[in-house]
Design brief:
The complex is a heterodimer of chains A (193) and B (113). With 193 residues, chain A is mainly α. Helix content of chain A is 82%, strand content 0%. Chain A is built from seven helices and no strands. Chain B is mainly α. Chain B is built from four helices and three strands, in the order αβααββα. In chain B, helix 1 (10-18) packs across helix 2. Classes of the chains: A mainly alpha (193), B mainly alpha (113). The A-B interface holds A 11, 18, 22, 25-26, 29-30, 32-34, 36-37, 49-50, 52-54, 56-58, 60-61, 64 and B 26-27, 30, 42-50, 52-54, 74, 76-77.
């Protein structure tokens, strides 16, 4: 009897190796099944079969979960934000031809990737989490503020400054785009109801 | 949707054939598969529920929601064949019968007199 309980307990803890969706859906049933089996067969036999089964079924479930996972809309939005930031970067540093070219290259490359990934993942849907959009919007100005303060203290690491500026633009642009996506999603939900 | 012309994988085949007799819950299904195969087919919980999950997705079986009619003290999920699943299961059965008949005829015809 103790062996049965131990087998069930060990099996329950091993369930964490399965993908979460599968575990949530069938975990309780699987544990119940092992409990039923322990009532009819020696627990060591049930345990050995469960371990073998786990070794075979678990990779398959992970592969299926990976293949069935819906494509995320965050990727095209992120690339679009990078493209917008690159464009802004090019405009801000327009007087410096190097910065202008770098910004433009980033904008074109990220814009192309955004368009391709957008086509593959479709329009913005309910799966996209847009909850923290305002944090990203605020992150940009905060980073710029830190850069200004650092410049005030005489920090002159040009590359780090430029990189930080780009990160600030990307963060803000991502936040704005997520905010727009959230608004669009809310509006479409209102229309459908 | 699984095509009836395409043979089902072994685990799916055992499950749909076991469900031809009526709805069953997981453990009863596992036992039924064991009985039908004389203990040759033994599925673990992961294989069983993974296969059930695929068969539900393919529309060959459904979970029965009318649990109140069952006398089990614990909540269990029962599974039964859909009309399409029944068609596929019967087609698989016919395919296996044809195979057995052909092999038997071949062996009896080829055996020395």
């Amino acid at each position: 009897m103790n062996g049965d309980r131990a087998t069930v307990r060990v099996y329950r803890s091993l369930l964490c190796l399965y993908p979460r969706e599968f575990r949530d859906e069938y975990g309780a049933d699987m544990v119940q099944l092992v409990r039923d089996q322990c009532g009819d067969e020696p627990s060591w036999q049930v345990g050995a079969r469960c371990v073998l089964d786990l070794a075979v079924a678990m990779p398959t479930q992970h592969m299926e979960a990976h293949m069935n996972r819906p494509s995320t809309h965050l990727v095209p939005l992120l690339y679009a934000a990078v493209a917008a930031a690159g464009l802004l970067f090019a405009i801000v540093g327009g007087s410096n031809i190097t910065i202008f070219v770098i910004g433009l290259c980033i904008a074109v490359a990220a814009g192309t990737i955004a368009a391709v990934s957008w086509k593959r993942s479709g329009p913005v849907g309910a799966k996209l989490s847009t909850d923290g959009w305002w944090k990203l919007v605020l992150a940009g100005p905060c980073i710029i503020l830190v850069l200004i303060v650092a410049a005030g203290f005489g920090v002159e690491a040009w590359e780090v400054m430029m990189l930080s500026l780009l990160v600030a633009f990307v963060a803000t642009a991502t936040g704005v785009m997520l905010g727009v996506a959230r608004l669009a999603h809310r509006r479409s939900r209102t229309v459908s109801t | 949707m699984t095509q009836s012309s395409k043979p089902l994988p072994a685990a799916s085949l055992h499950i749909v054939l076991a469900l031809l007799g009526g709805e069953l819950h997981g453990y009863a299904l596992m036992r039924r598969v064991g009985e039908l195969s004389d203990g040759a087919a033994k599925m673990g919980p992961g294989t069983l529920y993974g296969t059930l999950n695929r068969l539900v997705d393919d529309g060959l079986i459904i979970e029965t929601t009318d649990r109140a009619t069952h006398t089990d003290s614990e909540r269990r999920r029962y599974y039964e064949l859909t009309p399409n699943g029944r068609t596929v299961a019967l087609a698989e059965l016919a395919r296996l019968q044809t195979l057995v008949h052909r092999v038997a005829a071949h062996l009896s015809g080829g055996a020395p007199a």
